[in-house]
Amino acid sequence: xxxxxxxxxxxxxMGEAVKHALLTxxxxxEFGPTLETNIxxxxxxxxxxxxxxxxxxxxxxxxxxxxxxxKHIREGNELVQKSKKLTLWNFLSFPRYQxxxxxxxxxxxxxxxxxxxxxxxxxxxxxxxxxxxILEILMxxxxxxxxxxxxxRGLCGAPDEPECLGMVEPxxxxxxxxxxxxxxxxxxxxxxxxxxxxxxxxxxxxPQIKGxxxxxxxxxxxxxxxxxxxxxxxxxxxxxxxxxxxxxxEEAINRLxxxxxxxxxxxxxLVLDDVWPNSEGLVEKFKFxxxxxxxxxxxxxxxxxxxxxxxxxPLDHGPAVALFHHFxxxxxxxxxxxxxxxxxxxxxxxxxxxxxxxxxAGSLCQQPFEKWQNMKEFLQSQSxxxxxxxxxxxxxxxxxxxxxxxDINQKECFMDMGLFxxxxxxxxxxxxxxxxxxxxxxxxxxxxxxxxxxxxxxNLINLIATRKVATExxxxxxxxxxxxxxxxxxxxxxxxxxxxxxxxxxxxxDLNGDSRPDWWxxxxxxxxxxxxxxxxxxxxxxxxxxxxxxxxxxxSTDETFSSDWCDMEPDEAExxxxxxxxxxxxxxxxxxxxxxxxxxxxxxxxxxxSEITKFELLGFLSNLKRIRLEKVSVPCLCRLKNLxxxxxxxxxxxxxxxxxxxxxxxxxxxxxxxxxxxCNDLIKLPxxxxxxxxxKKLSITNCHKLNAMxxxxxxxxxxxxxxxxxxxxxxxxSESVRGLNKLCCLDISECVSLPKLPNDIGDLxxxxxxxxxxCSNLSELPHSVINFGNLKHKISVICDEEGAALWGHFPNIPxxxxxxxxxxxxxxxxxxxxx
Length: 835
Hints:
Elements: H1 2-5, H2 7-58, H3 64-84, H4 94-144, H5 168-179, E1 185-189, H6 196-204, H7 207-213, E2 217-223, H8 228-238, H9 249-262, E3 268-275, H10 280-285, E4 293-299, E5 310-311, H11 317-328, H12 340-349, H13 354-364, H14 369-381, H15 392-401, H16 408-416, E6 426-427, H17 428-438, H18 446-457, E7 462-465, E8 480-483, H19 486-496, E9 506-510, H20 518-537, E10 546-547, E11 552-556, E12 568-569, E13 575-580, E14 584-586, E15 599-604, E16 610-613, E17 626-630, E18 632-633, E19 645-649, H21 654-657, H22 664-667, E20 673-677, E21 697-701, E22 721-723, E23 745-747, E24 769-771, E25 795-798, H23 801-807, E26 816-819
Parallel strand pairs: 1-4, 1-5, 2-3, 3-4, 9-11, 10-12, 11-13, 13-15, 14-16, 15-17, 16-18, 17-19, 19-20, 20-21, 21-22, 22-23, 23-24, 24-25, 25-26
Antiparallel strand pairs: 6-8, 7-8
Protein name: RPW8 domain-containing protein
InterPro entries: Apaf_helical, LRR_dom_sf, NB-ARC, P-loop_NTPase, Powdery_mildew-R_dom, WH-like_DNA-bd_sf
Domain RPW8: 1-150
C-alpha cells in the first residue's frame, strides 16, 4: 500500500484525479445556465415554428424543410426534460448532460444560421420566380387580352388578308423557310411591284404560320426614311401596351427586347416590310437572342449579309394570265371579250410584273377593242422593265396607263395622291376638301367619290373602309381612306415634276432634319451672294425671294426638323399640306402671305400629339375655308371669319375650347361644318358654340368623355346633320333637340350610356334617317315618336334587334322603315385610334 501511494506514479494518478474532479465541478456549475439557455431558446422557437407551419401549409410548400427543424427542436426538448430530472445525487451525470445540452444548442444554432437561411433564400428565389410569372400573366392579360390567340397583329391591327394569285409556289417556299429551325433573318427580295408586301401579308394568314407563331405575328412598314423609335413605338401599340417615349434608339431597342420576352412563350415573327437600301444596320438592331424568334424582311435589295435571300421572280406565263384575267374582269358578262392571242401578247409585254399586270388589266377593263390593240402595240414597241436596273422603265410604262383615264380630273386627282407620305392612309375627306377647291367638285363628296372609285377600278389606289357607322348614301366618309403602292406614289410624284420648280402646279418638299433640296440650297446661296454684294456696295438690298406659282404646296418634315424655313413666296398656293412627325411644330412665316390659301391640312404622323405654334398667322387669310388637323394640340383659336369647315381628328381640344379668351362663335362665325373625331379630352362643347347659327353639319364621334349636349342646341336653326355616334359616356341629350327644324339625319349609334331620348323627339318633322344601333341602355322610346306618322316622307330607322324591339311597341307608324344592317365585324377601325 505504501508503495502504491508513494513515488511518481501515485502523484501522477492523484494529479489526473484532481483535474477530473475540478472539471466535473466546473461542468456541474455550468449545467444550470446551459439548461436555462436551452429552455429559453426552445420557448422562443415554439410559436415561431407553429406560425411557419401555418404559412407553409397555406403556400403549399414542401414539408421536409420544416420537419427537419421540428426534429431538432423535439430532440432538444427531450434532452431538456431529462436534464431537468437530475438532482444533486446525480452530480456525476451533470457534465455528461451539460455536454449534450451544449452540443444540441450549438447544433440548433448552426441549423438556424446555415441550413434555414439557405432554405429561406431558395424559397425566396422560388417565390419571386412565381410572382414574376404571375405578374407576366397579369401584364399579358391587361395589355394583350384584347387579342385572340390566333389573331394576327399588324399594321395598326391586323393586315387584311390579300389576294395572292399566281404565287402559290413562292408562298410555300417562304413558309417552309420560316417554319424550319435555325433561320433568324430571312430576306424576301424582288423588283418594285413584284408582290413582296402582298406575299408577306398573305404569309401572316397561312394556317401553318398562324399555328406556329399564334398571336405573336407583328407587321411593321419601314419605308424609305425609317425612324427606329417610331417603329418600336408601333410595336408597343400593336401589343396594346402604353406607348412610351424614348430618348435614344438604344433605349428603344432595350425596351423592345423586354417587351418581346413578355408577349408570350410562343415563337415570334416580326415582318419588316419595305426596307430600303443601306438599312441593314436597322435590321441588325431588331435581332435578339431568343428561341424561335424570326424576322422576315421585304426589300428591293437582297441584303446577303443575312444569308441567302428568297428571290421573288417574275410570274410565269400561266399565273400571269390568270392574274390579268382577274383584274381585267374577263368573264362571260364582259361587254368585250378580247381574242386570246391579244391577251397573250399584252400579258407577255408585262414581263411577269404583278403590278404592271394589275394596272394594265384595270386600265383595259370594259374597254373597246381599239384600246386593247393600242396597248398591245405599245408593249411590243417598248421594254417596260429591266430587272437589273432601277424602276425608271416601269414608271415610264405605268405612266402610259394614265392615258386611259378619260377625265382630266382623274389624272389630276391621281397626282394629288403624291402629296402625302408613303405607306400612309389618306382620308377621303381630305381629298374631298382639296378637290372641291382645286377642281370645282361638289362639296358633299359625290363627284369626288366617283373619281375615287374610278381610280380603284383602274387599280391605281385601294380603298379602306373602317367602321360602317353610316352608309355612303348619306355622303359620310369619315371612315374611308385610300392607300396606294409606293411605286404608284412615285409615279404620281414623277408626273408632277414635268416643269421647273417655279412653274409646277404641285410643289412637293420632303425634308429630313435640316437638309434641303438642291433648288432650296441654290436659293440660299443666291441670298448669301446678294447680301454680300449689298455689304460691299454699302447699301442694303433685300435678297430675291423664291417665287413659287404652285397651286398646291406639300411639305413633309421629320422629328429633327428645326423649323428653319426658306423664305418663299407661294402667293398662288390654294392648298397647303403639312406632314410632320415632331412634338412641336411652328407654322412657316410665309403662311400669312398666302392670301389665296383655301385649304390647310396638318397631319402629325408621330405617336404623340404635336403642339402647334404661330397659329395666329392664319388670321391674316381671308380666303381660308377649310382646316383639318390630325393628332395635334389645337392652340387658341384666332379669328377665322370665312372658315366654313373645321375637322379635328385625334386632337387635344382643351386649349382651343376651354382656355381660349375668344368665344368659338366669334372665332368662326360662318362655320358650316364641324367634325370632331377621337378627341378624348372633349367633355363638353365650348360656351357660345350654339351661337354659330350657320352650322349645318355637326359630327362628334368616338369622343368617349363627352357626357352631355348644350341645353340651347335649338339655336342651331340651320343644322341638318347631327352625329354623336360612339360617344360612350353621353348620358343626356338636350330636350331642345325638338327645335332643330331642319334636321334630316340623327346618329346616336353606339351611345351605350344614353338612358333615354328627348321626350319631344317626334317633333323633328324633317328627319329622314335615324341611326340608333348599339344604344344598349335605352329601355323605351318616348311616346312622341308616333308623330313620325304625320310625316309626308319616309323615315328610316337603322338599329339592331334590341332597337327594333323598342319600335315594336309602335307598330302602326306610316312611312316608318326599320332597317337592321348586317353586323360588320371589321378591325380596320383600329387604324383610327392610335394615340
